[in-house]
Amino acid sequence: MSTEPQEKNIMTPGEYLALERASLDIRHEFYAGEIFAMVGASRHHNRINMNLARELGIKFKADNFRCEAFSNDMRVKIENGYVYPDIVITCGDAEFEDNEFDTLTNPVVIMEILSDSTELFDRTKKFFHYRKIPTLQEYILVSQHVISVNYNSRRTTIKIPEI
Predict the structure, then answer these.
(1) Where do the Putative restriction endonuclease domain residues begin and end (predicted)?
(2) What pLDDT does residue 72 have?
(3) What's the CA gap between 97 and 17, in Å, rounded?
(4) pLDDT at 154
């Protein structure tokens, strides 16, 4: 997904959440008072997302993991904002910002599928924000153009080579 900045209009987190919860057809990310419309994803992006989410769900169910994967529409709270990762995983009890149960606060794994318009942002600023989430253990970046996965862990960072 790519983000397009909206008209520069500073708003509070509460105003953003009210706007976002009322929006039926478009999602927005929120950073330090600014909102960014989420632009539609490519066919390859959607295929990768669906395949990853399906395989994770099958694995979690088969192995009786206490983990749950959410795809695209689960908002995650970050410092000074809110984002929509392509895939987010929580283990144990999911924790939410409020009783709307639509803003996850304890992700363990976040996966982003890279596109031309988001790759630099996903690798830099978004990664910077994600590293501040205390529960986050792994950040995985998946290319949609070549077979390439970057795996970032609290313990180590490795790059799985292109095939």
Answers:
(1) 15-146
(2) 86
(3) 11
(4) 84
Q: How far apart are alpha carbons 131 and 123 in whole angstroms?
A: 11
d(CA 24, CA 39): 14
Going 131 to 17 to 10 to 118, the CA torsion angle's sign is: positive
Domain count, the chain: 1
Cβ neighbourhood burial of 73 (10 Å; 0-12, 13-18, 19+): exposed
Which regions in the chain score pLDDT beneath 50? Answer: 1-2, 158, 161, 163
Which residues are 151's β-sheet partners? 140, 158
* pLDDT at residue 118, rounded to an integer: 85
Residue 10 located in a structural domain: no
Please tell me the distance from the alpha carbon of residue 28 to that of residue 49, in angstroms, as a whole number.
19
Tell me the residue range of the domain where 153 lies. 41-160
Do 160 and 150 meet the contact criterion of CB atoms below 8 Å apart? Answer: yes
> What pLDDT was estimated at residue 163?
42
pTM: 0.85
Residue 12 lies in a domain: no
Helix (H, G, I), strand (E, B) or coil at 45: helix
- Report the alpha-carbon distance of residue 74 to residue 143 in Å, rounded: 21
